[in-house]
């Protein structure tokens, strides 16, 4: 039986790796943007849903918000501009200690019953509107790099259209494990009509002990897609008889063709 676990958490196509994380880091420090929730579900009966942005920093916070269709191919996440969803407001400024409701609005027909559409909400935290130059600093001529929009932090949040995935989705997932002395690679074919979020993989030994192979979120396999993740090989001589993981926040056995 599945057990639920409160897991914490240009017009061309571009790819992003590691989209399981809430944000993609950048060299600069963020001003203190907090986002809740970190995953947004828009049910078939809903036309919109929202997230709350909070500025926990001491300075005003500026951000740009965009939404992209999210697909997967060749073990990569692909983001493509879309008109199926829109956001309001797309540009925002939050005072220190203030909050802002961000609405994500469906502008397309609902997805077919039992199906799911996946998107990514990209929130770019922007530099302050005016950053004073150092005293006696020489002016810098504008270049293509300096005139382009820069950001302090980029947050990437999943948005799904459709019903919540069924708790026992694990039965529709086909796994294989390729083992080398240094790494084990888990390859997942998602045969379900909805996403599979994978976290906390454990190996089960013949004497029913658990060996932690991966801590935290590994990523997603979208409906009908194949993804893979490599983890360090465990140091053990015990025979492995099975595996478990958090699948959409429920502990479930992995349907592995050969342990």
UniProtKB/TrEMBL annotation:
SUPFAM superfamilies assigned to the protein according to its UniProt record, in alphabetical order: PapD-like (SSF49354)
GO cellular-component term (any): outer membrane-bounded periplasmic space
PANTHER family: PILUS ASSEMBLY CHAPERONE (PTHR30251), SLR1668 PROTEIN (PTHR30251:SF4)
Domain of life: Bacteria
Cleavable signal peptide: 1-30
Pfam families (alphabetical): PapD_N
One of the GO biological process terms: cell wall organization
Name listed for the protein in its UniProt record: Molecular chaperone
Alphabetically ordered keywords of this record: Signal
All residue ranges annotated as the Pili assembly chaperone N-terminal domain in the record: 32-164
